[in-house]
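[audit] Reproducing an earlier prediction to check determinism. Same input, same settings, fresh worker. If the tokens differ from the archived copy the diff job will pick it up downstream; this log only records the rerun itself.
[audit] input (199 residues):
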Amino acid sequence: MNVSQQDQLLEYAALVEKWNKTFNLVSRQDIKRLLPRHLLDSLAGVPLLNGERILDLGSGAGLPGVPLAISAPQRSFVLLDRSSRRVRFLQQVVRNLSLNHVEVVEGDFGQVIGEGDVYDTITARGVTTAPEVWAMVGKQVSASGRVLVYESTQMSIEDDEQALVQPNQTGSANVKVERYVYKVAGLDHNHSILIMAHA
């Protein structure tokens, strides 16, 4: 990450802190450790990005979508959230940081993302469980694409993996699942991202 990108990341953090007072983008406890808990954790997914089209599902405050977009300006990003307040915040971020490769979309996934819309990477952080994410977006992942679910340190990753490798109720093919484990400076627990792809 170059100096310009680092400046963008710091400006983004300042915007989160400013808007958090009225929009409650992240918890008050987490705002004090915004850099390690949210920004550095989000950036852990950079080496896992695949292809050109990236969708951040339930982007919220823009995590992990905005840090990933800052780090990968050669890719196109869609930040999707159902909350009009959070969408207004994300639109402000995109304008302030001149993220011309980022589009902000308001609405529920099934209503605003058409069946023909295919993405190379779909990210989800703090949205729902990995099996539910895959059930929601699996059909919109390209043949060589992947879904990255940032796992909470409180969630049972093994349970998510077990649920994913079983055929679902429609009998569709299994899902390939890998786990990427990493440490975040300033945080105690190991963190992980579940990587899901078509089997």
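[audit] rerun output stored. Observation attached for the diff report: The CA atoms of residues 99 and 114 lie 24 Å apart.
[audit] end
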